[in-house]
Each structure stands twice: as structure tokens, then as C-alpha cells.
Amino acid sequence: MKMGLRERASSLRVGTLLICGFSSLLLLGTVSVQAADLSQNMAECAAIENDGERLKCYDQLAGRNSRKMEEVTESKESESTEKTPKEKEEESFFSRLWDLDPETRGGRFAIRPHRSNYILPLTYNFSPNAAAVQEGDPDKDVMRTEVKFQLSVKVKLLEDILNKDMDLWFAYTQQSFWQLYNFDDSSPFRETDYEPELLLNFRTQFDILGLTGRFFNVGFNHQSNGQSEPLSRSWNRIVGSVGLERKHFSLLLKGWYRIPESSRDDDNPDIEKYLGYGELWGYYFLNEHRFGAMLRNNFSLHHNRGALQLEWSFPLLKWVSGYVQYFLGYGESLLDYDHSMNRIGVGFIFKEWN
Question: How far apart are CA 145 and CA 346, in angstroms?
């Protein structure tokens, strides 16, 4: 007997439900197996200690391009190992003074230190040059105790001239000797020397005798004490310097040629006999301490004259260090260029420009 239309429809629905139920069970079983495999694989990835390999394992499970991700990972690792400016090796002494490193170059018109900036509130001169002062005023006297200070700055006028590693600087140095404790004579300034310079500086990188040549410069230098006759002193020079460094040691070689003057205008015709034609500066840096020495000599066998300056600066405050200076010899100032001085002083030096 043939089944009725209603019975066949009912059987079709039952069959459809059975197929759907069977398919659902099969799908659930497959999902469960895959979930179990995924969980096991993720556990294996999590057990990998290397960050890059672990990330690569997770990317493979996610179906991402492992080669591309590997390149990205390597790029990030490379960036992470690159030092930030603060982590980089601290700038050298000459790098700060002459704006030598490309990463820290300050551009034009930024004021920078030239020489040391310091004040010695207490200095004692064992051999004061009273005769020079009394030449202008016989009634004046010179105290052995006085204040000495120096201001020295420079500014970059042009940089990378002709697309080369050379900059043009203007520098100014002022050194003063103040008879502060001479109250009977109203605490006068005994002398102030003014020294403007125009310098063309060449940034270099060469090795010599285990040292690295960082720069050399040439320029014009004028120095005078701004006084009238008979205390007037002045001279003009073509100057040149070479800066050499090795780790914590910096060496500066300076030389000059005096531009001749007429005998009528020359305040100090024999100054080269006392100051010679150059000087040598050496600095050693150790744990925020700076030890410095200056040597100068005229290299004359019959009338040998020279000078020695010893320095020590030590940590004191954030921006200021303690400073001790000792000078012996000729040329501490223009007024005293032909008189041997013997002075020791204590005070402060600007740490940032130390």
C-alpha cells in the first residue's frame, strides 16, 4: 500500500532532523579535536623561551606570514638594541666645546663655552708686580690677596661652509684681577684683559701616536688690557690649534704668529721673548674630576722663560664645581707679561662648561 502524502512528508522531516543531528555531532567532534590540538600547540609555543621564536610559533598557528613577521621581529629587535641619545657614550670634552658630533650639533648662534669660566674669590700672589701699577700711579700699592675670574664664550657664525666639515666661530675671553680686599684704595680692578677671536674650525678624524685628532683651527686673535699709557698692553696674532683625544684624556696644542707693529705703536715689543710662540694644554677626566696642566716656553737657550699652570676641579653642586688653580711663570696677564708670577687660588668653575 502506498504511503499517504502526509506520512511521506513526516518521514522526510524526521530524516532531515536525523541528518542535521548527525552533522552537528560530527562538527562538534571535529571542533573538539581541533580545539584540543590548538590547546596543545599553544602550550608548546608558550614553552619556548626565546621571544622571537615564541612569537613566530604563535604566528604560524594564526596562519600569518612567518617570513614577514620574522623580518618585522628582527627590525624591532634591531631598534630596541639601538642606544638612545642618553645611552650613547658621553660626549668628549672637545666635542662639547666645538660642536663636533653630528648627533648633538647645536646649529648657529648658540652660545657655547670657549675656555674655562671660573671665579677665584681668594688668590694669593707670592710675587706681585707692584712696579707695573706704580708706573701709572706711584702712590698705588698691590695687595698679595685678590680675586681672579674669567669669562669665555663663543658663538658659531657659519657652519658646514662650502658643504665641508668647517665652521666659523667668534670667541670672546675676559680675564680680570680685582683688588677686592684693598679697601683703603676702594677695591680697584688692577687689570682686565680683553681677547676677541675669529676662528675657522675644521672637524677632523685622524689617528696619530695613539690619539685621535678631533679638530684644528686657524684665526685672528686680538688681546689688550684697554688701559692708557704707560699701562697699555696689546698685540695681534694669527693663531692655530689642534685638538687630540683618547678616552678621558684631551690634548690641545696652540701656536701663534705675532703680526708686526711699528715701534711707535708697540706697547710690548719683546712679548714673544716671555710668552714664546705657543703653549700646550692637557686635561684628564676622572669621575667628574678634571685635572689640567698648561706648559709654555720660549725655547731660548740663553734667556729661557716659560709658564706652568696646574688645575683641579672637583664635584660640588649641580652646575658648579670646586676649582683650584696654581700659576708659576710669565704672561699670566698682559700687564705682567715680563714679570714672573707665583699664584695659587681657590674658587668655583662652571661645571657644565668645565
Answer: 12
86-90, 118-122, 129-133, 213-217: which has the minimum mean pLDDT?
Answer: 86-90
Q: What is the pTM of this model?
A: 0.74
Beta carbons of 52 and 77 less than 8 angstroms apart: yes
CA distance 125 to 122: 10
Rounded Cα gap, residues 136 and 129, in angstroms = 13
Share of the chain above pLDDT 70, in %: 78
Class of domain 93-350: mainly beta
In sequence order, the 6+-apart residues with CB closer than 8 A to the CB of 198 are 168, 169, 170, 171, 219, 220
Catalytic amino acids?
222, 224
The number of residues making up the chain comes to 354
In 3D space, the residue among 172, 154, 150 whose CA is nearest the CA of residue 327 turns out to be: 150
Nearest to 53 by CA among 80, 37, 77: 77
For 243, the enclosing helix (H) or strand (E) is strand 234-246
Whether the ω angle into residue 260 lies within 30 degrees of 0, i.e. cis, is no
How far is residue 340's CA from residue 326's CA, in Å, rounded to a whole number? 13
pLDDT in tens, 87-126: 345 779 999 999 999 888 888 888 899 999 999 999 999 9
CB 193 within 8 A of CB 220: no
- Quick check: 254 and 238 in contact, CB under 8 A? no
Contact 200, 219 (CB under 8 A): yes
Ramachandran angles phi, psi of 312, nearest 5°: -145, 120
Residue that is written with C-alpha cell 687660588 in the block: 345
Q: Where are the domains of the chain?
A: 5-81, 93-350
Encode pLDDT of 223-238 as tens digits: 999 998 889 999 999 9
Three-state SS for 36?
helix
